[in-house]
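Contributing new records

If you add data, match the layout below exactly. Sequence lines come first and carry their own label; structure lines follow with theirs. Keep one chain per record. Anything else will be rejected by the validation script.
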Amino acid sequence: MRRVIDGEDPDRLYTVTGGRSRAGDAGLDLVTLIVSESDPAPGMQSEHVRILRTCHRPTSVVELSAELELPVSVVRILLTDLLDTGRVSARHPSSAGAAVHTPDSDFLKKVLVGLANL
């Protein structure tokens, strides 16, 4: 008798990932935002199609996992496939905001001195 793990058929997960158990070097953490760069193509794997349709707006890896009802590890493998083919782009929210404006250290020191003088 086969045992079902977390309500998901392990054979299906093996098939979805092509037998892979690691996502590679994509550096995708739970809050990495994924954005579609193209529309689904005929013949694509159904999970890839769902990811592309869901990510027309920035969507985090953990949100995709919940939407697809798949473990995060499986979603990372699927996203690595799409990243490798240029169908999605990934960005970490903190890196996107950090490039826009980083406070000057001299300014921060002046603020600290000003607060200490209060």
